[in-house]
């Protein structure tokens, strides 16, 4: 019996593929910038993570995770992993904004939905790795 597995790369038309690349690159640049700000110790980031109360090590961890996720998002063989990782980061940011910082949560929801959709579209990469 054969098992149905999603293809490693979604089959889209040329315009859709280009649009998806543009979205992936935009998110990668955004998370590279955010992660870099955390790692270099931008005063706003130090302050926000101080309010969160988990310590500054969590700022470094989050910044590194954002940069790794951004790189994985644009590397063709790891799009699903990068999008999944950044979806988790966005959900964590949502929790921090909603429960502790009392800030804007709309962008975190939008990011999580878009990144989750990208992870879903490339889910075949996860299944392909698992099968090999």
Give your account of this protein's structure.
This protein is an all-alpha fold. It is built from six helices and no strands. Helices cover 79% and strands 0% of the residues. The chain has helices at 14-40, 43-52, 56-74, 79-101, 106-121, 123-131. The protein has one domain (14-131).
Structure, briefly:
With 132 residues, the protein is an all-alpha fold. Helices cover 79% and strands 0% of the residues.
Mean pLDDT: 90
Shape: elongated
Rg from alpha-carbon coordinates: 16 Å
Query: Helix-strand pattern, N to C?
Result: HHHHHH
Detail the topology: elements first, then pairings.
Elements: H1 14-40, H2 43-52, H3 56-74, H4 79-101, H5 106-121, H6 123-131
Helix pairs in contact: 1-3, 3-4, 4-5
